[in-house]
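Review box. Two proteins, two foldings.
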Amino acid sequence: MRRPLPRATYSVVLISALAAGLLSGCSNSSNSGTPGDSEPSGSAEARAQAPASVESLGFTPRRLDLPVYDYQLSPSQYAKVAEAKQVLVTACMKRYGFSWSTPAPTIPRQDRRYGVIDLRAAQRYGYHLLPTDSSAAAPGAPTPSKEEMAALTAGQLLDGDTGASRLAAGYDAPVKRVRGKAVPPGGCAQEAERKLLGRDDLRSEAGVVSRINTESFSSSMRTPAVKAVFAKWSSCMKKAGYDFADPLKSIGSADLNVPAAPRAETELATADVKCKESVDLVAVWSRAETSIQRTMIKKKASATAAQRADNETRLRNAAEVVEKSG
């Protein structure tokens, strides 16, 4: 029986404060078989890969269709909002004499909630992320000066789940003025959020949606149907020469810190996907999680509806901001 690959170190860094949500105090998980793959990633392997079009991939990456996704921004929608934030923050920072820009966020192509689910992706990239259209290899933004950070944040961080502000490390009180000019509450970052949200109060129900996203994932793995399909998948993998109890342990054996997947990894990922297909794992797992999510969403109907409305407002205002910016 083949020995598992060295265990991975899932180190995920933010491309920039702006790309990650304008200095929010919390963020979602990375997209390596866990919830939260609609967020941009700055992982080492993503930065190492060159931009690529769908045509160069040769296939359209598969995405799941789960109820909670209706209450989150999709990768392409996130990119539109991030672009508008960049426009707004750049204009705000200019008022203080600063030239501000950040690299575009790296938007994930694939849905890795259940691990790799595309055979061609497994054969070519293993468990590594697929190349993206945006330039993942773009250099990072230079470290902002203390004055720039004061204008950008006013010494405060925004909790992306609740919309509440807290003082950032190193600040005893919110910054009121920079270069003799008044700083808006929360700095240019929160000013941009208020413009996109269309109101001064930044409190949100994103935390409710985030908890549904993560808790439904964990709960689904404890259902009899998913446990049974995991056992079938594991049996299939043993026939292929691998010993893993479930797909997440298979992912965890890959070293994603290296720039490209070695042959052993692509072979493992290929066996993984073939076994998923043979036991219908994705369909079984998604049905179980869909049922759980629908129940959770129904219990939090008011909060989830409010978050969806906020997302629609952000998208509408983001489109206007980008259009006006020319």
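Next protein.
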Amino acid sequence: MASLDIPGVEDSDETGLSAPVCRTVTPEGDVLLLVPGGSAAARAAAHAQDDDLPAVMEITDVAPVSVPHRIRGRAWVAGWLTPVRNEQRARAAMLLAERHPVGELLGIDEALAPDPAPGLYGRPAWMLLRLEVGEGAVDDLWGAESFEPEEFAAAAPDPLVAHEAELLQHLHTAHAEQVRGLCALLGERGEVCGLRDRAVPVGLDRFGLRVRFVRGSGGRPRGDGSTDGDRRTFDARFDFPEPVRDIVELRRAMHVLFEAAAS
């Protein structure tokens, strides 16, 4: 979930049209954004022409499973916003379409045209914007840290990122008891895990699995499966023997974890 903040520019549309419909990163480290042509971001970028338009994109990472404290982290990318124009538009649109297969339904197909078709009030229905990164920061389950544009450009996506939500939901529904059994690997801390506790997988990457243990001591059940009695949560990280590169290696790594917990 991402949103754009442009100093001095307010989005009067209650639908939040400054939120990009889809986004991706170029090999050079710029962020490409597809936004509605009538959004505050599109209007401000078009009005600025060649002037630098400072902007901040905030990304909120929400766990794809129901769990207390569901926001896993936030990231901020600050830089300068400009419209993608002329021959650059086709290259940018193709890159977005490559990363987002449903993109043509969201305006990428229009962006590939030599002259974007006008929408409401004579504006293009969609606009491609480029955010040149100046600085950024991340605050998530692993800690808080800032980064430079060179680090951002050099970063590569985790090989499991496209499948993480589906994999976490599968672990939660089909392997709940095995995930809960990972408590046996916590050493002395494992003693706090009881019969009424829940274990929810909240993060998965090439290095390991993060599980949130939710303690409950009775009381009336809540919608998320916890109770209104005493409750305490803590996260535990279970590292794989070595980083995984694909789903096949992930299955093997998870099998090793579950076997170790059961032995």
